[in-house]
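Input record (Table S2, row 355):
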Amino acid sequence: MTPHSAKDTAERTALVAGGAGFLGSHLTELLIRKGWRVVALDNLQTGSTANLSRLAKESRFSFIEHDVIEPLPSSLKADRVFNLACAASPPRYQADPVHTMMTSVLGTKHLLDVAERSGGVFVQASTSEVYGDPDQHPQREDYWGNVNTTGPRACYDEGKRAAEALCFDYLRLGKADVRVARIFNTYGPRMQPDDGRIVSNLICQALSGKPLTIYGTGEQTRSFCYVSDLVDGMWRLSDVADNPGGPVNLGNPGEFTINELAALVLAMTRGSSPIVHQALPQDDPRRRRPDISRAEAVLGWSPKVQLAKGLPPTIAWFDKMIAAARPVVETPPKRVRAGGRVPALAAAPAAAPKA
Ligand SMILES: NC(=O)c1ccc[n+]([C@@H]2O[C@H](COP(=O)([O-])OP(=O)(O)OC[C@H]3O[C@@H](n4cnc5c(N)ncnc54)[C@H](O)[C@@H]3O)[C@@H](O)[C@H]2O)c1
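Output record (nicotinamide-adenine-dinucleotide complex):
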């Protein structure tokens, strides 16, 4: 299998839509390290240019603020187009469900058109949510899924399914060399403390000494992939010469109950918070674990960072975020009245850590 990049000599350009987000910023940095010129494009809905601050002085990097729902300039060309533009956190994508659906459908179409007119490779960040609440376990790519089309998660799940349909139509029609990654739960530094995802919720609650919220019994399972493994998988998917022809699961097959994750987080943060149980959100999947045999065979990829290794840098990241959000309690300057008496100063309010 000859990687695409081995054939190319000129400097190549990658377009990373959603490049200011959690995964997009890590992917952008990886591409820069590999010698690519990268254009990151983002509407900053859930991402932030702070995630790209390490690249501020990098001459091969540029940023465009743009919503992919709107058509892209016809002058925009790229040898590889990575589409990660879409809020991934349930409270964020449910806040404006119509925009979420349009991001997946119209946004993917606009980005596919960039790949078509550039003759480039297109990589779609799809999701394990296309499997819905699966009745097949672990999930293989040939499983069609069990998704509720009318629930509050449908704007994301069905949007991503429609985007996959568009991707495979472009591939079948020979319009673009399209590859689809079905990404399972991924975590690591640059996740947002308030994004409502399970890893960020539990770590922030433990670090702030708040009760850990577990939805349902906590016996539902998830798999957790560390961000460096995930972006390596996306890179390989873009770089493999032979188009895999179908979607490729990317995730860590290690399977943990939410109770196990909570226990690990408490141990690693040396926290002693109690656990509180709340009702399961609607359409919450009971079990999630990727079958990654296709990624192993086609990309030579499997994750290297196990949960016990990936959690400490993630906890350190959230610790830093929480400390930065804490109001700085400054000692007010001493005011000395004429006559030299120092007035009593009001007690400073206690710093409230932000979860
Ligand atoms: N992190 C995960 O566990 C996970 C799992 C499965 C799939 N994914 C997919 O990977 C991609 C990246 O996820 P993430 O975790 O980095 O989330 P994220 O929210 O941090 O990143 C998404 C980025 O897309 C941008 N964006 C959203 N709508 C846009 C629009 N209409 N136009 C332009 N930019 C837009 C956001 O501002 C943000 O920077 C998403 O497509 C998501 O569906 C992520």
